[in-house]
Design a protein that fits this description.
It is built from 9 helices and 8 strands. It has 235 residues and is α/β, with parallel strands linked by helices. The chain has a single domain, classed as Vaccinia Virus protein VP39 (Rossmann fold, 3-Layer(aba) Sandwich). An 8-stranded mixed β-sheet has the order 1-4-3-2-5-6-8-7, sandwiched between helices. Helix 3 links the parallel strand 2 and strand 3.
């Protein structure tokens, strides 16, 4: 992957030194256009990143994941399709404020992240991560979650309502609702597995705000009855 022109693998040391050249300059220096930038965090094989880029040439897309073996598939496919509005980053999601400048990202996709049943701070929709996202999201930027985990869906829904974030979409069963449009009907490799097993896909889209202290849901979501929701989808 070191020879892929659309994929970057910065070290943590480089990021700490501020040596990553595209932070705050993705539009001007890499994509060379003023179009909105969308980030898929935990992109896996990059199905969403690549498909969305093909559907919407008027936007730029960046897929981020730590597992290069998966990301290789998406990066190679984007090159094959000659998509110049796609880039990939191999690094940890915790590093995103070192990769993106203030107000640089318009939209975040979280497609089937690990629900992290035991550690709240590691959930990609926790207040710890949302604070990080707000460091580089534009005002009014949207976070979109697709998940097979009832636990993560319930937790995120409670967090969104507790913090009074604007809700754009919310359904516990995407494909029996009227919300499964061309974009939401994109199905990742793992999503197809959940659907084949009869596990409904949950979808939640919301606009986070950071002008006040963010609150975590109460202890109910740490109880065994809630953690079992997350396990049932992945066992």
């Amino acid at each position: 992957m070191e020879h892929f022109s659309n994929l970057f693998q910065p070290t943590y040391e480089e990021l700490l030194k501020g040596d990553f050249p595209y932070r705050g300059k993705w539009g001007h220096d890499y994509f060379r256009n003023p179009h909105p930038i969308v980030a898929e965090l935990g992109c896996g094989k990059g199905e969403y990143t690549v498909t969305l880029a093909g559907l919407h040439p008027g936007k730029n897309y960046i897929g981020l994941d730590i597992k290069g073996a998966r990301m290789y598939t998406g990066a190679r496919e984007a090159l094959h399709q000659r998509l110049d509005n796609v880039a990939f980053l191999r690094t940890r999601i915790e590093n995103t404020p070192l990769l993106f400048g203030p107000q640089e990202i318009s939209e975040i996709w979280l497609t089937f992240p690990d629900p992290q049943l035991k550690k709240t701070r590691k959930r990609l929709t926790s207040t710890w991560f949302i604070r990080k996202y707000l460091e580089f999201m534009r005002p009014g930027g949207v976070i979109r979650l697709k998940t097979d985990s009832q636990f993560l869906y319930a937790y995120t829904s409670a967090l969104v309502r507790l913090n009074q974030f604007e809700i754009l979409a919310d359904t516990p069963d995407l494909y029996t609702s009227d919300q499964a449009d061309e974009i939401l009907s994109i199905r990742t490799f793992y999503e197809k597995q959940w659907l084949d097993r009869g596990i409904p896909v949950k979808y939640l889209a919301f606009v986070p705000e950071g002008d006040r202290t963010l609150l975590e849901p109460g202890e109910d979501f740490e109880k065994e009855e809630y953690r079992s929701f997350g396990r049932s989808a992945r066992t």
